[in-house]
Design a protein that fits this description.
The protein has about 425 residues and is an alpha/beta fold. It has helices spanning about 20-30, 40-50, 55-65, 105-115, 130-145, 180-190, 205-235, 240-245, 270-280, 285-315, 340-350; strands at about 10-15, 35, 70-75, 85-90, 120-125, 155, 175-180, 200, 320-325, 355-360, 365-370, 370-375, 385-390, 410, 425-430. It has 11 helices and 15 strands. β7, α6 (about 180-190) and β8 form a beta-alpha-beta unit. The longest helix is centred in the middle third of the chain and has 31 residues, at about 205-235.
Amino acid sequence: MSNGDVTGLTVAVVGLGYVGLPTALALSDAGATVVGIDSSPARLRAIARGAVDLLPLHHAQLACASAGDRFRLTPDPTAVRSADAVVICVPTPVDARREPDLTALAAACASVVEHAVPGQLIVLTSTSYVGTTRDLLVEPLRARGLTVDEDVYVAFAPERIDPGNEHHTPERTPRLVGGAGPHSTRAAAALLAPTASLVRTVADPETAEMAKLWENTYRAVNIALANELADACHSLGLAPVPVIEAAATKPYGFMPFYPGPGVGGHCIPCDPHYLLWQLGKVRQPAPLVATALAANSGRPARITERALDLLAEHAVPARRARVLLIGVAYKEGVADVRESPALEILAGLAAAGADVAYCDPLVPSLRTASGPLDHVPDPHTRAWDLVVLNTVHAVHDLAWLRAADAPPVLDTRQRGPVAPRPAPAAEVTA
């Protein structure tokens, strides 16, 4: 493996989710033979059918890879034995107490260690606490009698994927690599070079692990700040977005973050808790981070409260209110509802007695605390007491909400006018 040339290599990608599948496709596109390993037969069937949430570019890559003989899918973990390199891309969620759930990661790493062979490169990409790579790969491999950086090579290279954003595809994004030794670092950098705009190597896995946690904790704190200052703007009679855009004209020392209903997905609601959990074990306080995470967690409840207040302002009892949520995915352009604020908002409104529904063409059906819901394809044909703008996809047509007889609108993104229009057509901000 030299100078980023992966032609002729066999690479096993363990975990074919939102990170693993694009990684596998990028490696296949670069010339590697890819063995995609996933413990879910349903996921493997979906990939084989092309029924997966990908950007058009990656759908084209999947179609091309599936038509060839260098892309194979299997649930068999022993398939890593035939690989020159193994890339581990499994989820690292948090549990109900917001503590790390390492079940999938620990199992995947243990399986890879069990089946590792001399000469193999193992790259972990899953976000976790500082020291994960050594705890779950380096030390277990040594316990097997394999000398890391000589017999086998190990590195951490955190995933950097912005789902649904065609401008920030992995191929256009720099990648970090921290190896468990100089040979491991070079090997991992060469493997990943064709899948990134550039590769930046760092001293060790721990530096790369902390860098990833820092990235997403930075985002979590700034999202909390954006929501707080947006609320301050509203109290002062100002629309937040023009203020943010004005501040963003400063070419240094500022990056714009925008208000919204909360945080969702696989990174921001989870990754910073890995850092807090680890810091708690060494009694290192991080009050700013903890406060920001608490603020983000409480945001959907605040949106729900504002929605109920707005219904009351329009003399509509919550127990018979018909409320429509626009968008339930955690962000624009994706079908992913993991940790989506919409789930909590829907649950809160339903608990108050409202008749809730949602419109999201990317999410045909949804399981909620009060039962299953189906996407409403033609919301303009029904009467609503309130419409909540949660996640607005490009495919959403909201022209009907500008009609004179439109229902009140609660914009969780605070992009509408500050003052509500007279009932029944009103738009307010959360």
